[in-house]
């Protein structure tokens, strides 16, 4: 199978493979611990990484899976350049969590960019059909 076909027609399966492998690896290598800070009684030592890991990253993953799943159901082709860029962006967001602590704003922007790319892919694929008809 040609790699272009993977990124143009089978993007849903690539995203599912990446997200699935991320959660399998994450279960074996979980390093963050959350505990009660004894010096300040009930103060938790959690920074803005909580917002990113708990809400924004899973939302961008769910939007990616649903968007590419709908495109796969309707057998639509996606843009090759946007698909490769989104795939690399998703891998960077998933497998390099060290930059969340250092560059919180950049990670939020990259997750929003991943969501925007899915919407652009979705509308571009359905618009292409209307112009061809």
From TrEMBL:
The chain crosses the membrane at residues 12-29, 49-71, 78-96, 102-123. Keywords: Membrane, Transmembrane, Transmembrane helix. It comes from the Bacteria. The keyword Transmembrane applies. This is Uncharacterized protein.
